[in-house]
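Intended use. Records like the one below are meant for learning the mapping from a protein sequence to its folded structure. Do not use them to infer anything beyond what is encoded.
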Amino acid sequence: MSDPRPLIPMVLPQVDDPDAIAAQLAEVLRSGRLSNGGPFAEDFERAIATFLGVEEAVVVSNGAVAISLAIEAAAVRRGKAILPAFTFIATLNAAVHAGFEPVFCDIDPETWTLDPEHLRGLLAKHDVTLVLPVNVFGVPPDLAGVARQARAAGAAVIYDNAHGMGTEAASREAEALLTATTYSLHATKILVAAEGGVVVSPDREVSAAMRRLRNHGLTQPLRASVPGMNAKLDELRAALALASLRRLPEALARRRTYLERLRAALSGHPQVYRTQRIPPGVILNGQNLGVRLVDVPIDDAVAAFARRGVEARRYFYPPLHELTCAPAGDALPNTDRLCAGQVCLPLHSHMSEETLERIEAAIHGVAEELEAPRLAVRPSRPALLAAT
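Structure written out for the chain above:
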């Protein structure tokens, strides 16, 4: 029998104090300044740089264009670009539209992020000029290892950190090796602007180029302008982002608590679930709750969660190397194995005790339901022969 209550969605965009945000949006509308570097966009740009602990950040209209403009601003030589197949299609789009030939890299089977060992082989085999490591559900890759390998091969490194806002790592060694880091402020992310992006680079010239390119490539004198695009963050979304940033520490604290609690429930059923490994020294932001199902049909698991009123959704599916337009390349066994049984469960910035208990009950109930058929078919021990 299905749970009659509304389905708990996997993602649920949320903002704190919507009435206060509405008042700010009304202020923007009354001002007559809706775009082109207004006060809210400028304030947000300064505030997000402070939050990230960097000298400057460049805000743009969305997370996808953040990657594209970072490639252009860094003037990366066109060639082959290595990226994981286990990522959102925006990573691929940015590379292809910039003129790169994609090469897909396998992932680590436990962290689900770019595998440095496979990367090493690809760098040796191809003329690679760009590497695009990706944060997965809040978990960073071995960024220092990836960056060192890429730099040694003469490749730029642009880190697609769309999922990583608020994740903390003990070491910041890799930051100086990166060409740029990009973030998404999409409605499904922890820091919400409805749509928006942020680019951070240790190279001030890259940041300066980003500012020109996001405004159609215009510069002074105007005859020195170059082809760019309209990628500015407008005032309405900047006001929303600024309000979201003020409450971000509280949102991160809540999501981390929820994540720890739900991962604990999952860990009680290792015969059915495997959770993503968190590298040492990393404090997750709670972006998503990823789960790998162990030897159970994924459609059965999704349906079993749905009957209990909980959405379990395949994420980054299908993997990019399975797209009909994808080029042929190396086998990606870890990616294939994960995608055959990977789902995300609900994780929001605000979750009531009732919601958490429903998800926990679903985790336990689905595990028992899926494990029961396997227990039923296990052969019993042969009876001991009676002594004669």
